[in-house]
Design goal:
Elements: H1 2-7, H2 9-24, H3 28-37, H4 56-66, H5 69-83, H6 88-115
Length: 116
């Protein structure tokens, strides 16, 4: 595990910071991620502002905290792409896409898991 973290130090730091911000922002990070993926979510899902209940706020906080795992995934993938000789601009685009895709997956799991 330590060798894995040593191979992606910036992503590991981002993982720790994003995890802490997910909790300390009291749901702001999770809600921001919702609005970042809103255009791709199915229109059959209710809007974040229209749902309520005791589960909503903890779910938004948890999405913000779990999103930090995407930095480790993206860092690992970035290392693999470096080994294959991929250009920097394309690697950065893949990194951002992994972060966005993870946020999308978390919100899909959250919404369908709770509303289904």
């Amino acid at each position: 595990m330590w060798l894995f973290i040593k191979s992606i130090p910036r992503s590991a730091i981002a993982f720790l910071i994003a995890g802490a911000l997910g909790l300390l922002s009291m749901g702001f990070l999770g809600a921001s991620l919702y609005y970042a993926v809103l255009f791709a979510l199915p229109s059959s899902l209710p809007h974040l502002d229209s749902i309520g209940g005791d589960w909503v706020w903890p779910a938004v906080i948890m999405v913000g905290m779990l999103w930090s795992i995407a930095f480790l995934i993206a860092g690992f993938l970035n290392n693999r792409l470096i080994a294959r000789g991929m250009r920097t601009g394309l690697r950065r685009a893949v990194y951002v896409f992994v972060l966005w895709l993870w946020a999308y997956a978390l919100w899909m799991i959250t919404m369908y898991g709770r509303l289904a």
